[in-house]
Each structure stands twice: as structure tokens, then as C-alpha cells.
Design brief:
Length: 297
């Protein structure tokens, strides 16, 4: 791959992870709307915008590109339920003033992926990964003891997204095609919900803006995913793995510096432990990537 293609891939990767990092600000703008209503709109508008984008990209091959088997549809229904659950927890937490918890959850996620690989895919852990998991688990437990309860939001986000990745790993379906079916399969329940519940309070000065922001939730969903898919084709998985820490890092800073969420001693210990664990598991692939660059400049 040419250096120009690599640069474009890196730009796309930076775009999508920075975009995801600032996403809490968008959902804060519509925090007066119930989380379930936001998610219902997100499903509907994401399915619509995905269809339009795929129709533009695939053109005459659209229906051929969208075809999946009955078994794949069933698995996509399961994965769709997992990712929608993840969205719901995230939106509810952001609107409840717990962005810090969402940041912690997405920092924990790579470590959950390692654990799920060990549990379900018979992947083996090396000593470095074992040490990293022990550090992350112990500091997360410490945070739970400090708070008087487990960090449920962070754990729920990490586990639902980890399980989502595990289920999708079993499918030979392109990411955007898969997301289209995941949202489309849940389109009817989302529409029934919106028809049964008024999504916005009686007319006020902000109704037009709120409706516009709800409609834009589809763009908010698919735009960074398009960038991610573009980057994934041009960058190594190792580099993508490092870039993914950008989003929760930005969310962390937004939570503490912009929205004034309390960063307790328990949070300090937990974040320090998880960052240490991530650095530990990242060191080997980083060194391997550096050696490859030295060998093949």
C-alpha cells in the first residue's frame, strides 16, 4: 500500500475515534429526551441513512450486497440487540451525568475482549496479558469497593460491546451491511415504541431543534463507522488498536474538565490501573510494528 493510502487511512481513523470521543456532547444536547426515545430514533434514522449510503456505494449491486442467509439474519438479530443495548446504556449514562463511567467502560473493553477470546475461542494468554488482566481486574474491584457498589455502567458497556464483537466475529458479513440489518431488524419495534409514546414534550421553543438533532442521530451513527471501515482497510489492526484509546480519552477529559464530573480517588486508582494494563498489552505489538517498519521502511 502506498504512503498516500496509509495517510488517508490514518486520517480516517483519527476522524472516527475523535468523533466518537466528542459524541457525549451531542447526546447532552438532547438529554431532555428519554434515552429509549433517542435510541428508537437512532435505529430508524441509521437504517435510513445506511440504505441511502449503500445504494450510492453499491448502485446496481445493492440487493446482491444486502443479501444474507436466514441463519445470518438470526445472528444479526442477536448482535443488533447487543449493540442497541450498548447504545442505550451509553446514552442513558451520558444524559445522567456519568460520562466518566462510559469512558472507563470503553477503556476496559479491550481487556474484556481478551477474556472473551480466552473463554469462548480457546485463545491462549501470554504472561504479559495475564498480568495486565490481573491489574485491570484488581483496580476495577477497588473502584467498586470505594464506590460501595460495582461500576455497573462501565462493566455493562464493556461486556455488551465485547459480546457484540464476539458474535459479529462469527459472521462473514461486511460491517456496514451487518449494521444495516441490525438496525433494520429492530426497525419495527422502534417505530411501534415511537407511535406508542410521545418522544417530545408538548410544543415549545426547542422542538424544531430537538427533532433535527434526533434525525441527525442517524448521521452520528454511520459517519464515524464509514471512516472506521475506510481506515480498517488501510491500517494494521495493531495501529487501529492504539487509535481506539483516543475516544475514551477524549470522553474522560470532557467529563472531568467540561462537565465537572467528580474524579474520586477510586477513579484515579482504577483509571491508572487500566491505563497501565493497556500499556502492558500494547507494548509487544507496538515493538513488533516498530521492528517491521525498521525492516521494511
Amino acid at each position: 500500500m502506498s504512503a498516500d493510502e496509509h495517510r488517508k487511512g490514518l486520517a480516517a481513523g483519527l476522524f472516527c475515534f475523535v468523533f466518537w470521543g466528542f459524541a457525549p456532547i451531542y447526546f447532552k444536547l438532547i438529554q431532555h429526551v428519554p434515552a429509549l426515545t433517542i435510541i428508537a430514533h437512532r435505529i430508524i434514522w441509521a437504517a435510513l441513512f445506511l440504505l441511502l449510503f449503500l445504494a450510492w456505494r453499491e448502485r446496481r449491486q445493492l440487493w446482491q450486497a444486502l443479501w444474507v442467509s436466514g441463519r445470518q439474519l438470526l445472528v444479526l438479530l442477536i448482535s443488533g440487540s447487543l449493540v442497541i443495548s450498548n447504545w442505550l446504556i451509553f446514552v442513558w449514562a451520558v444524559n445522567d451525568g456519568q460520562i466518566l463511567s462510559t469512558s472507563l467502560g470503553y477503556f476496559i473493553n479491550p481487556l474484556v475482549n481478551i477474556f472473551l477470546g480466552l473463554l469462548f475461542l480457546q485463545e491462549r494468554l501470554n504472561r504479559v496479558q495475564v498480568v495486565a488482566l490481573i491489574i485491570a481486574a484488581s483496580t476495577t474491584i477497588y473502584l467498586g469497593i470505594f464506590l460501595g457498589q460495582p461500576p455497573w455502567i462501565a462493566l455493562a458497556l464493556a461486556v455488551t460491546f465485547g459480546l457484540y464483537g464476539l458474535v459479529r466475529k462469527q459472521l462473514d458479513v461486511r460491517p456496514l451491511i451487518g449494521l444495516f440489518w441490525e438496525t433494520t431488524l429492530l426497525l419495527l419495534p422502534a417505530m411501534v415504541f415511537l407511535l406508542g409514546w410521545l418522544p417530545i414534550e408538548p410544543a415549545n421553543d426547542h422542538d424544531t431543534q430537538t427533532w433535527l438533532l434526533l434525525a441527525l442521530s442517524g448521521i452520528i451513527t454511520i459517519l464515524p463507522l464509514i471512516g472506521f471501515n475506510y481506515a480498517a482497510k488501510r491500517l494494521t489492526l495493531t495501529l487501529i488498536g492504539f487509535l481506539q484509546y483516543i475516544a475514551p480519552s477524549i470522553s474522560f477529559m470532557i467529563a472531568v474538565l467540561f462537565y465537572g464530573e467528580v474524579f474520586t480517588h477510586g477513579h484515579q486508582v482504577a483509571f491508572a490501573g487500566i491505563w497501565t494494563a493497556l500499556l502492558i498489552i500494547s507494548w509487544q505489538p507496538l515493538r513488533r510494528m516498530w521492528r517491521q517498519r525498521q525492516t521494511h521502511p
